[in-house]
Structure formats: structure tokens, C-alpha cells
Amino acid sequence: MDWMLGGVGRAIAQYLERPVDGYEPFTPSDPEALRATLQPGDVLLVEGNNNVSGIIKYLTQSTWSHAALYVGPIGERTAKDGEPLVLVEAVLGEGVVGVPLSKYQRFHTRICRPIGLTDDDRARVCTYAAERIGFDYDVKNIFDLLRLLMPLPVPQRWRRRMMALGSGHPTRIICSALIAQAFESVRYPILPRVTMMESEAAREEILEIRHSSLYAPRDFDISPYFQLVKPTVEKGFDYRKMCWADMVAAAQDVVSPPMVPDAPARASQVAA
After folding, report:
1. What's the CA angle centered on 260, arms 253 and 245, to 5 degrees?
2. Are residues 68 and 89 in contact, defined by beta-carbon separation less than 8 angstroms?
3. Phi and psi at residue 202, in whole multiples of 5°?
4. Does pTM top 0.85 for this prediction?
5. Has residue 270 got a pLDDT over 50?
6. Domain extents for the chain?
7. Cα separation, 14 vs 204, whole angstroms
8. How much is the mean pLDDT over the chain?
9. Quick one: DSSP state of residue 79?
């Protein structure tokens, strides 16, 4: 029975992972700036271009459909072309894997950086994720996503619950849950449920960690505990150095003015 479900799950995963025709990011990342800006512990949000991305964007009302954790070089592991594996992510149909940064150089991305995380806890977060490479992707999540392909409107109050996907098996995991659990391991907040104490003498916030299955890529974007880092700004942005199309055209006109007959030539033409 398990082999049959596995086969069906893989077939569904192949469909969900199929790229959507005509996708082109409105603002693709600058690969070199992105590479120079990322630090271990950063969450990289990605605007995906496949069928499952559309489902997640709809349910979360967000641009972001995938999340990966930047951990830096994972030992000696490299891609086939020799590029080091620096991101850990849970991929539909594959499981938890290490991937090179170039995988997302053509996509619209965003860096979310945990603020105030100690070096020790940062290392623990990265180690937690890296040690889970090889875990399976949650097959139950694939079947949950299949039922969401039905083109029916979903009330906003139900969308978050519909994102609570997966079987909960400790060695099967989905992308946001993997990262949420990594930060949960050092009790770093993402979007905790806050309860206010009623006592006037000792009013304080009691933070409760949400279940990891309730997290979506969007949550790292809107979390008050993660800073949005934009590589273009970080590397030193100067609007005066922007190369606008009309300025380029004007410069070309100055360098190559229209051909005009010289004075002697014009005079000979008049005399003729």
C-alpha cells in the first residue's frame, strides 16, 4: 500500500512542480549582491513559478511561495558543477536537500534576517537544518495540496488552517516547517501567539510558540523579529548612477549625430 501511495504521490508532485508557462520575475535578484549579502541564519523567501506556488500564494495572499535557510557551505558538498551547497530547503517530491545559491538567481527573492540572534544560537539553527538533509518530504502534504487545486474560493479565516499540512511525522517535513522548527530549537520567535496578563501589578506578554505546521513563507516577511535585507541597498545604492533608457538614447544621439553634408559639398550642389 505504501509503495502505491508513494508512486501516486510522486506523480502528483511532478505535476505540482511543473513550471508555469510565461513566468518572468518582475524584479529578479542581482546574483552577486545576493551572494555578498546573505549570512548564515538568513531566511531566503522565493517567488516560485510552478503550480504549487500558485496555491500557496493564494492561501497566504502573498508573493512568497517557498523558503530556504542559508547556512553557508555545507561541509565539502557541492553541486555537479562544483558550486558549494549553501541553502537547506524541503522540496516537494525530493525531501530536505542542500542546494546552491544559483538555483534562485532568476527568481524574485527576499532576505529575512533574525535580529539579535547570538552566534551560538545561529550555529545551532543552521546545524539543526543541515542535519535534516535526507529527510523525506511529507507525502501527506502532497495529497493535501492536491485537494487545494480545486478552483473554489476559500474564506480568509480558513486559509491559515488549510496551510497546516502534513502528517506530523518527525522525519517528513515541508519547507516552512523545517525552518520554523530550526528557530524553535533555540526558542527564537517568528509569529508567536501573544497572551496579555490581566494583572496591573505584573502586566507582561506570554509568548506561545505556534505549531510548525501553521507557518508559511509569508510569516518570515511579516514577523516583527526578522529584518528585511535588500542586497541592492546593502551594497550601496546611488539613484544618480541609474542608467535610464531615455538617457542612453540621448547619449547615443550626442555621440553619433545625424550625417549632414559639409559646406563645400552643399555649395557645389547649389552651383550645379
Report:
1. 10
2. yes
3. -140, 65
4. no
5. no
6. 2-239
7. 48
8. 75
9. -
